[in-house]
Amino acid sequence: MSSSPKPEYSESNQLSPLPAVQRHITGHNDDGLAVFHSSKPCAWAKLGPSLAFNVVYTTSVPKPSMNNDIDISTHESVMESGKLGLVSPNGSVCRMVDFGPSTADAHAEPIMHRTQSLDYGIVLEGEVECVLDSGEVRLMKRGDIAVQRGTMHAWRNASTTEWARIIFVLLSAEKVNVQGKELEADVKGEVPEIVKNQLAGEL
User: Fold this and answer.
1) How far apart are CA 85 and CA 92, in angstroms?
2) DSSP run (H or E) holding 2
3) What's the pLDDT score for residue 199?
4) pTM given for the model
5) How many CB atoms lie within 10 A of CB 122?
6) Angle CA(99)–CA(23)–CA(46) in degrees, nearest 5?
7) What are phi and psi of 81, to 5 degrees?
8) Rg of the chain, C-alpha, whole Å
């Protein structure tokens, strides 16, 4: 049985001309004063010719321990395992996504998907359409925020010339129940296997 493709992270995998991103993690010294634990460039993974993301940070439990840098070592282990899906079960994921211009070379249709999570999506660059499976659409501009509550949705760059960037914070949540029916994590349409694995959390 062949293994599922896993994302490969590298600084050089950033596809967009948008600014590179630095991640700064804080901590404490022996006197209890705040210090910077580490500062490093974010590494990107490609999901296609016009879609790339980086994982800023993850947690694996609802109330992570920051003592003895347990949360940092846990995050590093999760990333090294290559098994992180879109959502961290019982935890959280902070992820940044760059969307290429909506041209003929990009995906003809945005990827419609649902995750078992409560998500905050904040537009950092450009303009992005948030598309719901009901057909409703909202145009989000820089600084706008979407709160995704286990809904079937997709993201589409509203520009045919400029890149867009969103930062997401995904919090693991209970399954949504509508009229007695539990709504499962899902992804629609024909998408590359690596994309489907990320969206459905099957890694």
Assistant:
1) 11
2) none
3) 60
4) 0.90
5) 16
6) 30
7) -70, -25
8) 17
